[in-house]
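SECTION: protein entry
WANTED: fold as tokens:
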Amino acid sequence: MPQFTDSLRGYAFLVNERDQFRCVYCGLDGSRSFEAWLSLSWDHLLPKDDFLRDDPEFIVTACMFCNVADNQYFAKAAERGLSFTSKTPEQLVDQRRPFVMTTRSAYREFWDAKVRFRDHGKLLEPPFTKVQGQYLAFIADYTEMNGRPPAEADMQWYFSVTPPSVHNMILTLERRGLIRRTPGRARSIEVLLPRDQIPWLGGA
């Protein structure tokens, strides 16, 4: 069997495999697509002067962006009041995640405003309204979190609307080619847009 010296196939592979090829910060799943897998890296949870830094238990899977999203994390630890001693890997991930996600949110806002839905350099309107986008986000997030699509009753509860309102929204999304359903099968709603074109739930 060949011995690989690169990260993805070599020294980071066992860490990535342990973490199911998923970024511990943003949840990017490298097993879902080749492109996502190529974006995986690993992240040290402890500073360079810690003797456990290179212990695989304290190294986790991270996508390349999350890995460098807060690149002053260790340098600013003292002024932020952060501690690394006597913490489990899970606690260290939870400690770092808010700083990573703050940076991701700032980049997402820029992407939404300046990059998303462009055609030959021209900024286009998204193919759905803000409300429709929230339904798409709910369907996508619910499916990812629960391993199955939501029922119309789930959307009724979340959005605090009537059953006819939810049903009409589903019909509208289906007519516009944004979702599809399997006739006669419950919980079969599938969003047809790529994940990066679906807005954040609760966002724009």
In short: Residues 2 and 10 are 10 Å apart (CA to CA). The radius of gyration is 20 Å. DSSP finds nine helices and six strands in the chain.
